[in-house]
Design brief:
Elements (H helix, E strand, L loop, with lengths): L1 H15 L6 E4 L5 E4 L15 E2 L6 E5 L5 E6 L6 E6 L3 H11 L3 E12 L5 E3 L1 E8 L7 E6 L5 E4 L2 E3 L2 E7 L3 E7 L5
Antiparallel strand pairs: 1-2, 3-6, 4-5, 5-9, 6-7, 7-8, 7-14, 9-13, 10-11, 10-14, 12-13
Length: 183
């Protein structure tokens, strides 16, 4: 009985151990050379980008996953899609909050750009964006932000719980409540 148990445990350990495999390539001299084989994984996110379908008059609307309703109009590039992505990654949010340094609170962070049929991104300039946020802001402000960390204040109008601003070609936009520090 002990021999059978010992044999079974040995087989289980032997079968569960990982083994390394190598591929060999034979050249004309009959030598074998080890060949490295690379294995790559590709992540495919099947969720739709936050593209804004635009009609022939240059107007379009979309609703983000959090319920934010966005309407656009203006200088839209033919053959390109307008994309508005909410920025939700914690490190990016912290970086943007640090750059604003108290100029705004209750932030809504957006990445706004055009994408062509080849997947290239282009700056969105001259697009008027109207956003109806789930939370109403009483003293709204809007900023554009470039990746070098420079901000520019944008003119923002508030009407019926919606905020309207025009893109200036920066990739990132920040909407929020006016903060405690002067602009």
């Amino acid at each position: 009985m002990k021999r059978i148990m010992a044999w079974m445990l040995t087989m289980i350990v032997a079968l569960s151990a990982s083994f390394t495999a190598f591929a060999a390539e034979s050249n004309l001299d009959g030598e074998n050379r080890q060949t490295d084989i690379g294995v790559y994984a590709r992540y495919n996110d099947n969720t739709q980008w936050n593209t804004v379908p635009v009609d022939d008059n240059g107007r379009g609307t979309t609703t983000l996953p959090d319920g934010t309703v966005i309407a656009v109009r203006g200088d839209l590039k033919p053959g390109c899609q307008l994309v508005i992505d909410p920025i939700t990654e914690t490190d990016a949010k912290n970086w943007i909050s640090g750059i604003l340094d108290g100029k705004a609170a209750n932030l809504t962070l957006l990445h706004i750009y055009f994408i062509d049929s080849s997947g290239n991104t282009m700056a969105a300039t001259g697009v008027t964006v109207t956003i109806k946020l789930p939370n109403k802001l009483t003293d709204p402000v809007a900023y554009s932000l470039i990746s070098a960390g420079k901000t520019a204040g944008l003119t923002v109008t508030a009407k019926d719980g919606s905020l309207t601003f025009t893109t200036d070609g920066s990739p990132y936009y920040v909407l929020g409540e006016r903060g405690t520090k002067p602009v």
